[in-house]
Specification:
Layout lengths: L1 E5 L11 H15 L3 E7 L2 H11 L8 E2 L2 E2 L2 E2 L2 E8 L2 E7 L1 H4 L16 H19 L5 E5 H4 L1 H8 L12 E5 L7 E3 L1 H5 L13 E2 L2 E3 H8 L2 E4 L2 H6 L10 H5 L5 E3 L28 H13 L9 E5 L8 H13 L3 E5 L4 H13 L4 E4 L4 H10 L2 E4 L9 H7 L3 E5 L2 H6 L13 E3 L4 H17 L1 H13 L4 H24 L1
Parallel strand pairs: 1-2, 1-8, 2-7, 8-9, 9-13, 13-14, 15-16, 15-18, 16-17, 18-19, 19-20
Antiparallel strand pairs: 3-6, 4-5, 6-7, 10-12, 11-12
Length: 494
């Protein structure tokens, strides 16, 4: 089965958020299952540099792609590497990609021509497949930058197109990012007006790349089952709930997996002592080392809460700041690692300045410290207002650190409250996205830590033993893609 992914990110070559982690893992899992897998990526300058450093010199049996473009042709370069059995193809257009950022300059913001940049990428992906004579069993389109591929395919149905009948699966990682640009852009790319109305890619007079993908892809996949159920309702659908609801059973939720090679406490070089479910003693050493590194009082009896997150409203960082003074009064410790909104970080900075032995705030991306927090904390706070899937809670489970989460999206699919379900629980869960809800959950975490050590140990063990790998999720993707292929074939013969 030839599976082709089109995506704006793929770790380790280019990563801005969790999307990069997913595209860095899912194709490799599909390749391990015996499929031929290709990932198409924009040839950003930093991605090409990283590819050369990680996978060696970039090559390509065909080094150009000719893209029909605004009534003419805008050609680009084709560069390739192999990564874990996956063929990674970079489509590079110098005018659009020779910059230091991915979506915008490194200092923040977005490039004003992102519609053109990712519109070209979508057209280039199809042109490259056609020029090579490749007919995938399925095309997976990740988020709004790749979503126009579905609209372009639907908008150019010709009897002799080698891609006619190829099923497309739009994978939504976060509905909050939709790719909204002037409507004329898709028209200039050759999309007929028939596909540019309210039942297609148009929204509020603009071209909405994601909406077009939702309307035109064969199936729509979200990154957790609960998120798929949530987004058809106002408040979660980001204005696209009616379009998503219209897809009916073609909207499917598949829980993300975890890169268990990178996140493995038994082999983690950042931890002082390896540990796992059969050798749990090393977790105490990880906590001691973390307390020492942060300048905290080194004491195993003090519960340690960790946060590794973007500092944004979605993640409930303001709720953490509200509850932190109470945690300190309860003799708990708190470490927050991440960067983002300065207004959300400011209260946390003040708390860290006041209680240096109990609160630490590290405002940067620090891979090593992230591993140390996952390994050394007792509890992992993730009070998200919404969470399409979330990887933090999965990493925490694998490291025997109990997640404290709000019941939403992928958090609801992975964390079971241990006090409500002592035989199967692996964390603490609360309902309401407010300080009272988070404090209530933290109270229960403290109760578990101080009065029920055997139950705490059992929950930790369950988390570390859980199958969080991509194997099961990759099998579910295969099932959905085969169903989509059967539907497209049936439409060709109808």
């Amino acid at each position: 089965m030839l599976i082709v992914h089109a995506a704006p990110e793929m770790a380790p070559f280019v990563k801005v958020g969790g999307l990069g982690d997913v595209v860095g893992s899912l194709p490799a899992a599909q390749a391990a299952a015996g499929h031929d897998v290709i990932v198409l990526l924009p040839g950003y300058r930093p991605a090409l540099r990283a590819a050369a450093a990680v996978a060696g010199p970039l090559t390509g049996p065909r080094d150009r792609v000719d893209v029909p473009w605004l009534g003419g042709v805008l050609s680009g370069n084709v560069l390739e590497v192999e990564d874990r059995g996956v063929r990674v193809v970079f489509l590079h257009q110098p005018e659009l990609h020779d910059r230091d950022g991915v979506y915008g300059p490194p200092g923040g913001g977005e490039y004003g021509d992102n519609g053109l940049r990712f519109g070209w990428f979508a057209a280039a992906a199809l042109a490259w497949l056609r020029e090579r004579g490749l007919t995938p069993a399925a095309l997976l389109l990740h988020d709004w930058p790749a979503a126009p591929i579905a609209t372009l395919l639907r908008g150019h149905p010709t009897w002799n197109d080698p891609l006619r009948g190829v099923p497309t699966a739009l994978v939504i990682h976060n509905l909050a990012h939709q790719g909204v640009f002037p409507l004329g852009l898709l028209r200039e790319l050759g999309v007929p007006d028939l596909f540019l109305d309210t039942d297609g890619a148009e929204a509020l007079g603009n071209a909405n790349f994601l909406k077009g993908g939702i309307r035109h892809a064969t199936v729509v996949i979200t990154v957790s089952p609960t998120y798929a159920r949530e987004i058809v309702w106002p408040g979660f659908g980001e204005g696209l709930e009616r379009d998503l609801l219209a897809r009916g059973d073609d909207l499917v939720g598949i829980l993300n997996g975890l890169d268990v090679r990178t996140w493995d406490p038994a082999r983690d070089p950042w931890l002082p002592v390896p540990y796992d479910a059969t050798r749990p003693a090393g977790k105490a050493a990880a906590k001691e080392a973390l307390q020492h590194a942060l300048g905290f009082r080194v004491d195993p009896s003090l519960p340690l809460f960790g946060v590794v997150s973007r500092l944004v409203h979605q993640k409930g960082i303001d709720l953490v700041a509200e509850v932190a003074p109470w945690l300190v009064r309860e003799s708990a410790q708190l470490v927050v690692l991440g960067s983002g909104d300065p207004a959300l970080a400011e209260p946390l900075r003040g708390l860290a300045a006041t209680w240096r032995q109990s609160v630490a705030v590290i405002e940067r991306f620090d891979e090593g410290m992230a591993h140390r927090i996952y390994g050394g904390a007792d509890f992992f706070l993730m009070p998200s207002r919404f969470e399409p899937c979330g990887l933090g809670q999965m990493i925490a489970l694998r490291y025997g650190t109990l997640p404290v989460v709000r019941r939403t999206g992928g958090l609801a699919d992975t964390v079971i409250d241990v006090l409500d379900h002592p035989e199967t629980g692996n964390g603490l869960v609360f309902e309401h996205a407010d300080p009272g809800g988070l404090r209530w959950a933290c109270e229960r975490a403290l109760e578990l830590f101080r009065t029920r050590p055997e139950l705490l140990a059992a929950a930790r063990r369950r988390g570390m033993l859980a199958d969080l790998s991509w194997a099961r999720s990759a099998a579910r993707y295969e099932e959905v893609l085969r169903r989509a292929a059967a539907r497209e074939q049936a439409s060709l013969t109808a």
